[in-house]
Amino acid sequence: MTHTHSPDATSPATGTELAAMRHAFTLAGRGPAHGPNPRVAAVLLSPDGARLGEGWHMGAGTPHAEVAALADATAAGHDPRGATLVVTLEPCAHTGQTGPCTQVLLDAGVARVVFAITDPNPVACDGAASLAAAGVDVVGPVLADEARAVLGPWWSAVSQGRPFVTVKVATTLDGRVAAADGTSRWISSPASRVHAHGVRAQVDAIAVGTGTMLVDNPALTARTDEGLAAHQPLRVVVGHRDVPPGAALRGPGGTLVQVRSHDPADVLAALPGVRHLLVEGGPRLTAAFVRAGLVDQVHAYVAPVLLGAGPPAVADLGITTIADALRLEVVATEQLGPDVFITLNPPTQPHEMEC
Question: Average pLDDT, stretch 60-73?
Fold first, then answer.
């Protein structure tokens, strides 16, 4: 539902503005998929709907999307006074590494702002109300579900005050993550492994338990055909046993962090600034996050392989009857070579925080 924040505003978003918003969603995807800042884009429209400028946020410390769109319009010789700004996230009203976007818009003489979704950050929100109080015609939220999808884990992390947690499992058809002798390479196909490295390149941190670290000696890097990806997530080891001096985790890659605890809440608390954590196992660490209710998404790579024995993907959850089974929602499926990749959500999703 579209709400107007200006006391005198009566007009909802126009078709031109909605088209500009969807274009802004596409632009927002050019921003970094990881890090503390959201993917945001803005489009500046003239009173008759012509596109004057556009921009997107390129990462921490760079101009916000609103400022980038105004700069783009100015560089093209357009006057922003009386224009409409269409932006994928409510303009901020606070000073961080950059100043408040609300003041920039007021100084530029923007007459109308259409935003897609309210900023869940209590420090940054109230931008819509500030603009409306200054006489700007403010309309929003509009296309909020689409905006939330663009913001992805950032929105959830800020809303919940903790990292968005994705649990990854790579299993045989009968749910095993290794054979009875402990061997596990390779259950999944090369196509699945390429996909998994693409996911690693988008997250802020990857976590494994010390058991998995000692048995598999993973590097926990994001790799491409050319070598290490440009972005390397933090490598997090959970548990009390030391990381051996010659472990692959001490080689090239992201910063190594050890959390000497078995409590998932301690893990999340030890990762300030992390928006998206990928939990890659093993079974006991996965079970700990599930039992704590700290899983936001599951990535399951299922190979057409049968073992009949070996450790399961998830250790004991304390469930003793089928009526208590944790039933996940299938969001998407994709075939990766011979494997099937399934994205699933737990039954209860986080709600947007009140500003």
Answer: 90
| pLDDT for the residue 11 | 60
Give the residue-averaged pLDDT of 19-42. Answer: 90
Contact 269, 291 (CB under 8 A): no
Catalytic residues: 66
C-alpha count within 13 angstroms, C-beta hemisphere, residue 65: 30
CA atoms within 13 A on the CB side of 291: 15
Residue 4 pLDDT exceeds 60: no
Find out whether 269 and 237 touch, Cβ atoms under 8 Å: no
Give the tokens for residue 250.
Answer: 């001490």
Cα–Cα distance for residue pair 124/105, rounded to 1 Å = 15
Tell me the sheet residues that pair with 329: 345
Whether 258 shows a pLDDT value over 90: the answer reads: yes
Look up tokens 């196909």; give the residue.
189
Mean pLDDT score, 284-306: 96
- The CA–CA distances, whole Å, from 160 to 72, 121, 199, 320 equal 34, 10, 22, 30
pLDDT at 276: 95
Write the secondary structure of the chain as one string of H (helix), E (strand) and C (coil). Answer: CCCECCCCCCCCCCHHHHHHHHHHHHHHCCCCCCCCCCCCEEEEECCCCCEEEEEECCCCCCCCHHHHHHHHHHHCCCCCCCCEEEECCCCCCCCCCCCCHHHHHHHHCCCEEEECCCCCCCCCCCHHHHHHHCCCEEECCCCHHHHHHHHCHHHHHHHHCCCEEEEEEEECCCCECCCCCCCCCCCCCHHHHHHHHHHHCCCCEEEEEHHHHHHHCCCCCCEECCEECCCCCEEEEECCCCCCCCCHHHCCCCCEEEECCCCHHHHHHCCCCCCEEEECCCHHHHHHHHHCCCCCEEEEEECCCCCCCCCECCCCCCCCCHHHCCCCEEEEEEEECCEEEEEEECCCCCCCCCC
* C-alpha to C-alpha distance for 116 and 143, rounded to whole angstroms: 6
Beta bridge partners of 165: 277
At 103-126, the pLDDT tens digits run 999 999 999 999 999 988 776 668
